[in-house]
């Protein structure tokens, strides 16, 4: 028997088998592996993980999480960024809150005024942003919370005139109607998924 190691080439998006003494055919095995993974296009690339809570009680729009997408990260049609954010509203009952999401520096999701019905509800935001062409993307954002009348809040938008060869900011912001109310982002995670 032989021990087989693998290397992943991020730039080429390929997996290569390294077999001692060329046993069982390195090229043949690498081709088989890449074919089974659709040329390794299904390998996700982590972009960010945030687990230190960030809070705001400001009546001005405030960043809860921000990430700068490096230039040329989304370089193929069908590639997508998938992100999840989670947090809570504190002392929120009978107060209004507002959450926004930006993709490539553009607001693509805005709750407007949210009327909160319980004191300390939690919230989860889910984001899918898929490249449709060299200058456009479809972005869908969902907000789920046990404190608002519409438990599932969803918006979908098509962005045009994008430049994926340049960097761009994606972020979540919050705004409260009362300083006594706190909006917290407890976690954030994002990854780049390859096209199939």
Number of continuous helical runs = 1
**Large-scale geometry:** elongated
The average pLDDT is 84
As a whole number of angstroms, the C-alpha radius of gyration is 21 Å
- Low-confidence stretches are none
The total of beta strands comes to 14
Helix content: under 10%
Order of helices and strands: EEHEEEEEEEEEEEE
**Assembly state of the chains shown:** single chain
Task: Give the strand content.
Answer: over 45%
Helix-strand category:
mainly beta
Largest β sheet strand count, sense and barrel closure: 7 strands, antiparallel
First-last Cα distance? 33 Å
Explain briefly what this protein structure is.
The chain contains 1 helix and 14 strands.
Please give a structural write-up.
- With 196 residues, the protein is mainly β.
- Helix content is 6%, strand content 53%.
- The chain contains one helix and 14 strands; from the N terminus they run E-E-H-E-E-E-E-E-E-E-E-E-E-E-E.
- Strands 3, 4, 6, 10, 11, 12 and 14 form a seven-stranded antiparallel beta sheet that branches.
- A hairpin with a 6-residue loop joins strand 11 and strand 12.
- The longest helix has 11 residues.
- The radius of gyration is 21 Å and the shape is elongated.
- The two termini are 33 Å apart.
What features would you highlight for this structure?
196 residues, mainly beta, 7-stranded antiparallel β-sheet, 5-stranded antiparallel β-sheet, 6% helix
Chain-wise SSE layout:
Layout: E1 5-9, E2 14-18, H1 26-36, E3 45-50, E4 54-56, E5 62-69, E6 80-90, E7 96-103, E8 106-110, E9 114-115, E10 122-133, E11 136-145, E12 152-159, E13 168-176, E14 182-193
Antiparallel strand pairs: 1-2, 3-14, 4-14, 5-13, 6-10, 6-14, 7-8, 7-9, 7-13, 10-11, 11-12
């Amino acid at each position: 028997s032989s021990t087989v190691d693998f290397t992943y080439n991020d730039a080429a998006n390929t997996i290569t088998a390294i077999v001692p003494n060329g046993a069982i055919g390195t090229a043949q095995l690498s081709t088989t592996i890449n074919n089974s993974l659709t040329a390794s296009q299904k390998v996700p690339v982590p972009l960010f993980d945030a687990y230190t809570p960030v809070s705001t009680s400001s009546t001005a729009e405030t960043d809860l999480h921000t990430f700068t997408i490096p230039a040329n990260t989304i370089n193929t049609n069908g590639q997508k960024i998938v992100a999840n954010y989670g947090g809570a509203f504190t002392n929120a009952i009978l107060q209004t809150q507002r959450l926004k999401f930006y993709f490539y520096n553009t607001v693509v999701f805005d709750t407007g005024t949210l009327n909160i019905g319980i004191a300390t509800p939690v919230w989860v935001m889910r984001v899918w942003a898929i490249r449709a062409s060299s200058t456009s993307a479809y972005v869908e954002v969902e907000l789920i919370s046990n404190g608002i009348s519409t438990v599932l809040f969803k918006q979908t938008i098509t962005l045009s005139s994008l430049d994926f060869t340049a960097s761009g900011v994606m972020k979540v912001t919050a705004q409260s109607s009362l300083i006594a109310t706190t909006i917290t982002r407890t976690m954030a995670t994002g990854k780049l998924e390859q096209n199939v």
